[in-house]
Amino acid sequence: MDGFVALYIFMLAAFTGHEIISRVPVILHTPLMSGSNFVHGIVLVGAMVVLAEADTNLLRVIGFIAVALGAGNAAGGYVVTERMLQMFKSSKN
């Protein structure tokens, strides 16, 4: 794939994601976070598969960075979701 095509797809995905997320009502943010955590888990598995298939040191470094960022993103999403769910609990507990 040409680099410009990949950059175009990345920019289009970023703008589309921003437009979709900005129009979601506040009440639906927790289910949206849960769904995005699921997607981040798939991204993490894909990055681990790519890392396992890496032949050169450069690809291994890039794969390791992808796995680290994917794991951090998934873990951070679960932490944020947990904090949001704590906000909905009653104060009697």
Automatic annotation (TrEMBL):
It is an enzyme of class 7 (translocase). It is found in: Cell inner membrane. It is a multi-pass membrane protein. It catalyses: NAD(+) + NADPH + H(+)(in) = NADH + NADP(+) + H(+)(out). Pfam families: PNTB_4TM. Keywords: Cell inner membrane, Cell membrane, Membrane, NAD, NADP, Translocase, Transmembrane, Transmembrane helix. The chain crosses the membrane at residues 6-28, 35-52, 58-80. One of its GO terms (biological process) is NADPH regeneration. GO terms for cellular component: plasma membrane. One of its GO terms (molecular function) is proton-translocating NAD(P)+ transhydrogenase activity. InterPro entries: NADP_transhyd_a_C. Residues 7-89 form the NAD(P) transhydrogenase alpha subunit C-terminal domain. Its EC number is 7.1.1.1. PANTHER family: NAD(P) TRANSHYDROGENASE, PROTON-TRANSLOCATING NAD(P)(+) TRANSHYDROGENASE. The transhydrogenation between NADH and NADP is coupled to respiration and ATP hydrolysis and functions as a proton pump across the membrane. This is proton-translocating NAD(P)(+) transhydrogenase. It comes from Ahniella affigens. The lineage of its organism: Bacteria, Pseudomonadati, Pseudomonadota, Gammaproteobacteria, Lysobacterales.
